[in-house]
Write a structure and sequence with these properties.
Distance between the termini: 34 Å
Largest sheet: 6 strands, antiparallel
Number of helices: 2
Strand content: 35-45%
Number of strands: 6
Radius of gyration: 15 Å
Helix content: 10-25%
Order of helices and strands: EEEEEEHH
C-alpha cells in the first residue's frame, strides 16, 4: 500500500524531511463536469443529474519542500502548494511508480517557468 502523507485521524505522519525536490507524488483532485473521463474515480451524480462530481489522480513532482507544505509541479507546468497533512496527497507505491512512470517523466521533462 502507498505511504500516506496524512493519517486518517488528521494528524500528519509525514514530515517535510521525508520528501525532496524531484520526488514523485500522487494527488487525488476533485473535479466537476458533465462528462467524467476514463480515469474518473468515485463518480457521483449531482442532485439535478446534469453534472458529476468525481476524483482524478494527478501525477505531480515535488518542486520545493516548505516547512508547512509542498510546492508541486503539474504536467502542464502549473505550480500548486499543498499542505503536508492533506489526505488526498500520497507517495506512490513501487508498482505505481513503475506503472505510471511515463506520466511522472512527462512532468519532469516539461519544466516551464
Amino acid at each position: 500500500m502507498a505511504e500516506s502523507l496524512g493519517s486518517k485521524g488528521g494528524e500528519s505522519n509525514m514530515t517535510a524531511s521525508k520528501l525532496n525536490a524531484g520526488d514523485w507524488v500522487i494527488y487525488r483532485k476533485q473535479k466537476i463536469s458533465k462528462s467524467p473521463g476514463p480515469r474518473a474515480k468515485e463518480v457521483r451524480a449531482s442532485s439535478g443529474g446534469e453534472t458529476y462530481q468525481y476524483m482524478v489522480d494527478k501525477f505531480w513532482v515535488v518542486e520545493e519542500v516548505q516547512h508547512d507544505g509542498l510546492k508541486l509541479r503539474t504536467r502542464r507546468g502549473k505550480r500548486n502548494t499543498i499542505s503536508l497533512d492533506d489526505p488526498r496527497l500520497r507517495i506512490p507505491s513501487w508498482w505505481e511508480r513503475l506503472l505510471y512512470r511515463g506520466r511522472f517523466q512527462e512532468v519532469e521533462n516539461d519544466k516551464e517557468t
